[in-house]
Design goal:
By secondary structure, the chain is an alpha+beta fold. Helices cover 53% and strands 19% of the residues. The two termini are 69 Å apart.
């Protein structure tokens, strides 16, 4: 069967080249569609549940919110772990599912159970965005020389967030810092008591008055007019004129019993940068499984669009952190390895074979095998990362092609073909002679990866992409060695290209090796000496393992440093800003530091569990 296959590709070499071209095109498409990550994402499928109850102490949050939610969420199909945390005004529950779970189904199961929990009025639990701990891919700030923090935060909430969420693959935008605009009604208790009113009367009056209603259609002649009741409150003055009750024939308004002002939501956190204690920052969260390179490219386009004139005059978005820099370094590392490996292999093969065309034929297997690896990853929906791509050994990948090409050139030098037809017969015979050993050698290497495929949990998520990438690349190398290399040899090699004398130094090395092996086989004493030396080296290598350092993942220096500042638990937000200002100033004194950004507490959305002392 191997002879029939090799004979077919040699005589139908253009068909083999067309098939290779189709595979290469699909491989490029798969490469563009495959997510490229710097590090493998080791997290399980997780679903976060957030419930906020402003004003409740942690003990009340635990008893009234967290425990009822836990009772309903326990027993969710595929659940292996449930962890909860209760803070001031915030309940966070994290559900961890097994390796076979799908994120969409897990979130659907959780969403069906949340409404069944018996919670206090006004508390509505919601699921956290569908992202992983590695999903914070883009940090930015809104900067202006003429807008207040409240105006910046309003623009962030109502405009910037909406535009960035249009990008496919963005799970959510977390807004931190600044002031969220609110209208505060400060009621005078004495005036309420004197008029016989309560706080509930004031709240009911505001709720009933703060709405727009529809009144149907009003026919007037040949026209139909839409009737609307406009009552939405947009200014403090509008709220002051809301009627609460009638006393003595006179209307009692909100302004009679309270003071209305524009203020902001009580904050639980802030963001500072360099000398500024308060800035408005946004964090783009990458959806689980999305391609960060594609998403970041679209985010860059949206940022340019916003800075190009959509933001108010004087306001602009400034990037604080961009994951594309790290992804770019990852891709450049893979590309450098590919180019360096191909150049090295071509150089070494030319020294050995003395045939530039033969060296280039062998080198074509490297990029094509990598494209096959991307095809396999694309089919499985697995991302590629620096560990899986960097572990590919180009020497092993081209091993079959090297053996086949060397045997073809060696036999051609011995048999000295006169015509192209004679060379084709030599190519077929030479390829068939080494096809079976090459196939078995590749199969042994792939079989050695079987234990890696059996890994589970975190170690499986780290090394399974490596094993899959390596396996697909080896399969591609084997296919191209058996199908493409003979076809290229038949197409590009001529009898004059292979009639090159072998360098004398290699001939001397060959004869010297023959003499050494002959003397070794002739002496029993030398055989035992060689065997003993091999065992001693093996034992020494085994003993040296105990002194080798180990690490969970290889070190990756991104150029950023993360410093955790822990302050007293009871510290206020304002005092914490003062402490962090001093920390930023001290860190900024180092000449290598470009910028220092500090985050304190948590955002209003409740997506983070940090308290004001962190």
């Amino acid at each position: 069967m191997l002879r029939s296959l090799i004979s077919f590709v040699v005589h139908r070499r253009m068909l083999a080249l067309c098939a290779t071209l189709l595979i290469a095109v699909y491989g490029v498409y798969s490469y563009l569609q495959t997510a490229i990550e710097a590090y493998p994402d080791v997290t399980n499928v997780q679903v976060g549940v957030i419930a906020q109850a402003p004003g409740l102490a942690p003990e009340e949050v635990e008893r009234q919110i967290t425990q009822p939610l836990e009772r309903e969420l326990n027993g969710t199909p595929g659940l292996i772990s449930l962890r909860s945390e209760s803070y001031f005004g915030l309940s966070m529950i994290n559900l961890v599912f097994n390796d076979d779970a799908e994120s969409f189904k897990a979130r659907a199961e959780v969403s069906q159970r949340l409404p069944q929990a018996d919670l206090p009025p006004g508390v509505t639990p919601e699921m956290a965005p569908d992202y992983t701990p590695l999903g914070k891919i883009f940090y930015y700030r809104l900067k202006s020389d003429r807008h207040t923090l409240a105006q910046l935060r309003t623009e962030q909430e109502w405009h910037v967030t909406r535009v960035l969420k249009q990008v496919q693959g963005v799970a959510d935008i977390v807004s931190v810092g600044g002031f969220v605009k609110e209208f505060h009604v400060e009621v005078d208790p004495d005036k309420l008591y004197g008029l016989g009113l309560s706080l509930q009367d004031v709240a009911d009056a505001l709720e009933k008055s703060n709405r727009n209603v529809g009144g149907g259609l009003l026919r007037r002649g040949e026209q139909s007019l839409i009737v609307r009741g406009i009552g939405l409150l947009t200014r403090p003055e509008d709220m002051q004129r809301v009627v609460v009750a009638l006393r003595g024939g006179h209307a009692v308004t909100i302004g009679d019993v309270a003071r209305v002002m524009q203020s902001h939501t009580p904050r639980q956190g802030s963001v500072g940068q360099n000398e500024q204690d308060d800035i408005v920052q946004g964090i783009v969260l990458l959806k689980r499984g999305a391609n960060p390179s594609v998403v970041l490219d679209e985010i860059h386009a949206k940022v340019a669009q916003l800075n190009g004139g959509e933001l108010p005059q004087g306001m602009q978005m400034v990037t604080n952190y961009d994951r594309s820099d790290l992804v770019g370094h990852t891709l450049s590392t893979v590309q450098h390895n590919l180019l360096f490996g191909a150049t090295l292999i071509v150089s070494v093969l030319w020294l050995v074979l003395r045939s530039l065309r033969g060296s280039l034929i062998v080198a074509t297997v490297i990029p094509l095998s990598l494209l096959v690896a991307f095809i396999g990853l694309h089919w499985l929906g697995m991302p590629a990362n620096l560990i899986s791509m960097g572990a590919i050994d180009f020497g092993i990948m081209v091993n079959g092609a090297v053996v086949l090409a060397e045997n073809i050139i060696r036999n051609a030098r011995l048999r000295k073909p006169q015509t192209q037809l004679d060379l084709r017969h030599i190519i077929i015979d030479s390829a068939v002679a080494v096809a079976k050993p090459t196939l078995f050698a590749m199969a042994i290497v792939i079989a050695a990866l079987i234990p890696v495929f059996s890994l589970q949990s975190i170690e499986g998520r780290i090394f399974r992409p490596l094993a899959m990438t390596y396996t697909f690349a080896l399969i591609g190398a084997l296919v191209f060695a058996m199908g493409l290399v003979p076809a290229l040899c038949a197409l590009l090699l001529k009898p004059k290209h292979v009639m090159v004398e072998e360098p004398k130094v290699f001939d001397a090395m060959h004869h010297g090796y023959e003499r050494r092996v002959g003397s070794l086989l002739a002496s029993v004493r030398l055989r035992w000496l060689v065997a003993g030396t091999a065992v001693a080296v093996l034992a020494l290598a085994g003993l040296s393992v105990r002194w080798l350092g180990t690490e969970f993942l290889p070190e990756l220096d991104e150029g950023d440093a993360y410093v955790l500042v822990q302050m007293p638990p009871s510290i206020s937000l304002e005092k914490g800003q003062e402490v962090l200002r001093d920390v930023r100033r001290r860190l900024g004194q180092y000449p290598e530091v470009i910028s220092v950004t500090s985050e304190q507490g948590r955002p209003e959305s409740g997506t983070d569990n940090e308290t004001q002392n962190l």
